[in-house]
Amino acid sequence: GAVVSQHPSRVICKSGTSVKIECRSLDFQATTMFWYRQFPKKSLMLMATSNEGSKATYEQGVEKDKFLINHASLTLSTLTVTSAHPEDSSFYICSAREVTGGYEQYFGPGTRLTVT
Amino acid sequence: AQSVSQHNHHVILSEAASLELGCNYSYGGTVNLFWYVQYPGQHLQLLLKYFSGDPLVKGIKGFEAEFIKSKFSFNLRKPSVQWSDTAEYFCAVNAQSYNTDKLIFGTGTRLQVFP
């Protein structure tokens, strides 16, 4: 149980285009999902907390107009990287917390974004 | 602000050696503590967690961690590592009184185990 999927696993896009990444909790409901960015040989940096039915809470320094987050249902959150630039190339990971669970988070496999 | 430090960035061991990975956090209130593991090419998985009670926590695959409040530490241990333990290990902290679900991660420790 507690499986989180992400789609796509890899995406290459041209500079200036937008890319949408989906995060789904497959066998549980998640009121809260989290989006992280992982740099090579670095830790996970929390970008935003996504709450079902309300606006996401962004961490300091993360542009909310660039990284659009939507959490329309208890099993799906999406991250859209708008007008992507090469510096947005990274590994994006989502996690989800069960509605009835504790503070532990279940992580998706990540999405490798390359902007050319 | 909360922070998590993992001082061992890269650890190399032979099979059967004992392992201890350090984790220190900077927050004086009540915390929830976690160790996650990321095997090569795989997603983060929970190894163990501490919320309250016995400060010695046992996790999966023979791992354990000890919460020492006075030292703000939550070190991960395993008496005898295996080649399959080669992975990246992340310590994470959630500060309860901040009324948030956020996890703050350490920078990770890369463990390489040689047969």
Write a concise synopsis of the structure shown.
Chain A is mainly beta and 116 residues long. Chain A is built from no helices and eleven strands. Helix content of chain A is 0%, strand content 54%.
Helicity of chain A, as a percent range: under 10%
Instruction: State the largest interface.
Output: A-B, 20 and 21 residues
Radius of gyration of chain A: 13 Å
Net shape of chain B: globular
Number of helices of chain A: 0
Q: What's the overall average pLDDT of chain B, rounded?
A: 91
What summary fits the major beta sheet of chain B?
6 strands, mixed
Number of strands of chain B: 12
Model description:
- The complex is a heterodimer of chains A (116) and B (115).
- Chain A is mostly beta strands.
- Helix content of chain A is 0%, strand content 54%.
- In chain A, the strands form 2 sheets. In chain A, strands 2, 4, 5, 6, 9, 10 and 11 form a 7-stranded mixed beta sheet that branches. In chain A, strands 1-3-8-7 form a 4-stranded antiparallel beta sheet, with no helix packed on it.
- In chain A, a hairpin with a 2-residue loop joins strand 7 and strand 8.
- The model of chain A has no long low-confidence stretch (mean pLDDT 91).
- Chain B has 115 residues and is mainly beta.
- In chain B, strands 2, 5, 6, 10, 11 and 12 form a 6-stranded mixed beta sheet that branches.
- The termini of chain B are far apart.
- The mean pLDDT of chain B is 91.
- At the A-B interface, strand 5, strand 9 and strand 10 of A face strand 5, strand 6 and strand 11 of B.
Task: List key phrases describing it.
heterodimer, A: mainly beta, 4-stranded antiparallel sheet, 0% helix, B: 115 residues, 6-stranded mixed sheet, 50% strand
